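Quick one: structure for this chain?
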Amino acid sequence: MKQLFFSLNVSCLLTSLLLIKRLIQVIPVGVSKELTILYSAGSNYRITGLQTDQVEMLRKKRAAAEKNEKAAEAPKKKSRSIKSTGQSNVDDVFTRLLLEAGICLKADNSPNEIVVDQAVFQKRLHNLLKKSPQYPNIIKEFISGLESYIEDQEKFKNCLLPCVPQALDESTSSVSSYQESLVRLLLGVEILQSSVLGVLFEKLPEFMFDGVEESGLNICHIVINQLKWLDRIVDCKDLAAKLLELVAVAPLELQRDIITSLPEILEDSQHGDIAQELKSLLQQNTKLTVPILDALSSLSLSPALLTEVRGVIMTTLVAVQLEDLPVIVKFILHTVSALDACEVVSDLRRKLDLELCVAPQHNTKAGTKGLSKFPPDNSKEDCVSLLLDVIKTAVRFQKTISEAWMKAVENVVETDEHKVIDLLVLFILHTTNANHSRRGAEKLLRIKVREGHIREALLQRTFRGHGQVMRSFFPSILSLAQILLRSPETCVVSFGGSLYKLAFTAFDSYCQQEVVGSLVTHVCSGLLGEVDAALELLCELVTQKPEEMARYAVFVKGILDYMDSLTPQQIRRLFYALSSLAFGKDQSSHIQDDMHIVLRKQLSSPVPKYRRIGIIGAVMVIGSMASTRDTDESSTAPQTGSLPKERHRQVTGLLELLRSCTEACPESAALYYDELANLLQTYKLDLQVQEWIGKSVLEDFQEDFVIDLGPDIQGSFPFPASVMYNLDEDESQGGIAINLLPLLAEDVQHKGEQWSPAQDKGKRRVSPLCLAPFFRLLRLCEEKQDHGDLEEIDALLGCPLILTDLDVVEKVDSLSKAEREFLCSLLFYTISWFREVANAFCRQKDPEMKMKVVSRLQNITYLQAVLERLLGATPGFVPPLANFDCDSSELSALLPPAAPPKKGKKEGSSRKRKASSKNSSGEASQLEEGTEVEESQQEPPQDKEPAVGVSLASYRPFFRELDVELLAVIQCGLLSRSLLDTELHSHERVEVQLGPAELVFLLEDMWRKLEVGLTAAPAKRSPFRKSGRSVGFSHLHQRSPREIATFWVQLLPTLCTHLENCHNHFQALLSANQGVLDGPGLNTKEHQLMCSVLQLLLQILRTAFSWNGFTEHEQRPLLKSALEVLAGRLKEHEAALSLEELIRHSFEYLLNFRSSVPTLSSALSLTQLLIVISANQTSCRGQIAPLVRHFLCQEWVAPPGEKERGVRDSTSLQALLSIYLEYTDDVLRAVEDIAGTGVTELMNTTKDGSSKTFPTLNRQTFLVFYRGMMVELEKYVHMIPPARQGDSNEVQSERLLTWNLAVRDFHILVNLVKVFDSRPVINVCLKYGRLFLETFLKLGMPLLDFSFKKHKEDVQSLLKTFQLSTRQLHHMCGHSKIRQDTGLTNHVPALKKSLEQFVYRVKAMLALNHCQEAFWLGNLKNRDLQGEEILSQRSQADDQDEEEDASQLPEEESSDEEQSRGSEKKKKYSEEEEATDDSD
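Got it. Here's what it folds into:
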């Protein structure tokens, strides 16, 4: 007792004195004396320690309290029952014990006071209850008092709120400032805990539905908080059960509160059981997902239980609310282990669909305008942002999660299965700092885009639905766009361009500025494809977003400093963008001034390159200034739509400037006419400007190039002048003609003189260079003014030209070089004129005009045949320009080198051979064949052998470009018209039909246009390619690939008709000859032309169907339209067919032509076309190998009647053989069939004979077959899966059998060198023999390590066969050294190294299987191909007879010793005795 009293805090002295006074009355006398003394001492201390006013205040408070107590007791009823009296006693026990322990209960709303520390209180109360005489009944009385006391809600609330220390003043207290509530203190007393918990759970339902009070208190929430972090729980299992029972009946908010608090209430021993209950609850109520996951995240759970919980969550993932997703995904990703990360993340990716979580866009405008006009729901965007932050955190700090996401996206192979989350995750992976993650994301996105799995439509949906989220990924978006735009694949470039456009459209001004800056950087890079794509994007942004782009015009203007490396088409794009910004709605005066300065500087430059830039740029500026697009939308414009006077003055002034700057140079003037013609074709110019151009053009053309026909042609010319190629015979008198010969003669006469504009037009010089460009401009002016009608100038279609009689070509050898060059120039100008005339009138519907167009095509083919002969006799001739937007030096580099005529043939054939070797399909060589035979249609009369001609393929850029519309002439059938006599009666009917030569001419041009305009899917665009391939296609480049493909689809029925006509022609020829391949009619020129037609038709179809645009989803309808044409030729289908069915029917249609292909190159083209058509159709691809085998087993006859052979045919044969071995089901069997059967038959024939099974296999083509078999065999063994220790016995047996067959084929091929020992064959064997050996060491030897014990005999047989092959390779090495052929000896060191590695690798394999005694080494002598010893080493070999004997394999081997021989030895060993001892 003394210790108790003296431990009292002085600060609680007043309370202590009152307690002592009460104790004196109830304790024994002996103790009461001590308490009396203590009370007196305390009173004295109290009185001396307190101020007078404080004492007076305390007295007043105590008097007021006593008065209140009496007032409360006064109204008690006299009729109180015995039970009420008992309850009062119980309340007294509860209150008394609390008071004795140190807590004073307050009756009003003030908090309960505690006078001791809470630990002291709990210990006192425990002792008071434990030591009470009524124990354990006193506990029941205490709990009953508690229940009675808390029946009053205010008192219950006080019991839940923290107690306050009893303080004498504000600055002093007996205990710490913060104390727990009374309920929590009672829960800390172990003997009371269970009872108090029962009371709380009984009391809790009263407040379950009350919610939050006005004071801000939630009784239920406070009660749950009392249970958290208790020092000890007496019955944790019972508490958990009660909490779960409460969850079952509680409202949603209380349920969430209880579940979230479970980890803080329960002990670790109950975590497993409670997790099971929560898992069951999770399946029942998805609204509790988030609190349950919060609770489970804080529980200690086993991996198996976590897996079960994740499985349950995955099943409910599609039904949860968007705001719950971040918590769910966080739990899933944070509980994933390395073993199941891929599976869990793949399942999570499949169940997440963010597109369903975005509010619908109220988009009233089509396209991308709605991206920024209507922002998405911010709350939902915030939820998605939180979700992505969760994924980003997991990816950044868990490498397994990063790899799992990458794998999950990679494994999706269907386009429709890709989701918005895939793109967002790729951006997240690229955003993280880890280099492997960035590179992996870049590579994966590129692959997905290339394969067509991720398309632009998905990207647009991502930006449209999650623009706010995508803004946070802008650095990664910009970086990815830069990388993709530099890709050589056009589909990847298109996707990168979409990234740029959508980022510019959806993001703020800072991002827009970065996008423009990045595009400008691309343009200035100098890489052709990158510059094209960036300029195209800039033009699209200028067109679609002119107001936004106007802010960044100064960035685009900076490109003017880098124009030196731009192509003409790129310069057009650049000036289109700049002029649109400068002269658009938001006109920029400083941009206009800068452009005018640059243009005037370029136009006045003496350097042709800069003058070309100035002309192109000035014409594009005129297009923007004179275009009616700006005035159509202006409300102040006149009704006539004319330009303002000031703008019209500026346009005409710029046109006059261009004319004055270009008339001194014919090339510049011709370029000016061409660019102005392109402007009229692509822009809708103001009517006044059109009239001004048309008037000046018509007058000048008539004056410069057209003359009236008279009886005689005045002038002195190198050759006699003659009026030729007049299609209007009835108008020969008094008609007009093109004055070509006189103009060319004058131009040659004044060659080298300075051109200067003359004041008098009648005396000014006119160059024939400007004839075709000037006429093109005139024609387009007439089309614009007369709405496509060319009646005003239709006389130019049939009018003759002033030329010379072409009989002079027969005497070409007697002409001087200058005369031959004059004739060549004259023919070039004439052909270009006819081409331009055909371009002009091909759209006319009048049958007579169509006839004249076909006649002009006949003139072209005839003149080309004459020109070929002239060029063959005029080496080194540089033709006049016909396309003026490129440098003449670039075109001259495309010409064949100058050489004497005899050597020219040899060099020409060499050049063809090189071209053929680069093109496996033989297309270039076949094209040359087609052009060479064009001369047969109209050849001049001759009595002797004609001069050797050259191919015009190299001279193509020196002819005028044919318009795409001219290709529609192939649709023309038989055309006819009646000639009238003087009395207008028809006296003669003329018929014109498109012949094979004209068809070859048009198909050749179509094929080249498709090659340039449609990029093939497997081909990659070279960033450093030369511009020679695209020179002469300026008009084509102004069309999009889709427009070109659409035009081709329109012509596809006609192409099929011509294909079927060719098929019928060859079938009829074979029927007439009764199947004889070299019968009569096969050596005719018509037959050669038909072969060229068929070849070109197949190449056109293959090139078009190879377009990578068909892999894009947007172009799929166009592909179906093309396939419907092919499928419809086979059978009419009423119902619409699926894409797979269309492919199958198209394949069957084209397969029908296999019996009519006349040449090996045509067979290759048909095979490649079928491969492209079949795509991924397994049923169709399975027919490729039998078809190619049929071609290989067919005897091909060349036009002269001999078997096909030579470089061109060898290239086609090699390509067919590679396709056959690639598509056959069993490569090893196919190789063995050819090498074992075909080659054996060849060896038994005469020198000029061939194999019976494979007629294409002869001694000239043996190298082709040999190389093809070695290449494909090495590829095949490279694809054999590597062996593993855990492979089953069946797997090992199967792979061992495969290696046995491969080694046997290799042995057959190596031994063929003994018979066919030419240098190229040995070279192929050394090269691919080493590769095969290295692959065997890498993939085959590990298999022997694991399977030696189980398959001993198979391994021995394999090594014995392979040993024979390696010995032959060793002999070839010696042969190469003796021959001292550097081409062969270059392979020897690497091969001998591999052979030596093979010896030691076999020894290691035997040692691994404890059979090293079966291995021995011997010295192998150097021998030649036939096995004879090399004589140079005879002196060294005399002393080594025993070693030579030891190097031979014994005929019989003991199976007990498990012998395997490695007998090759590549260097001389000094330990000779060791080798001989082992052999014994």
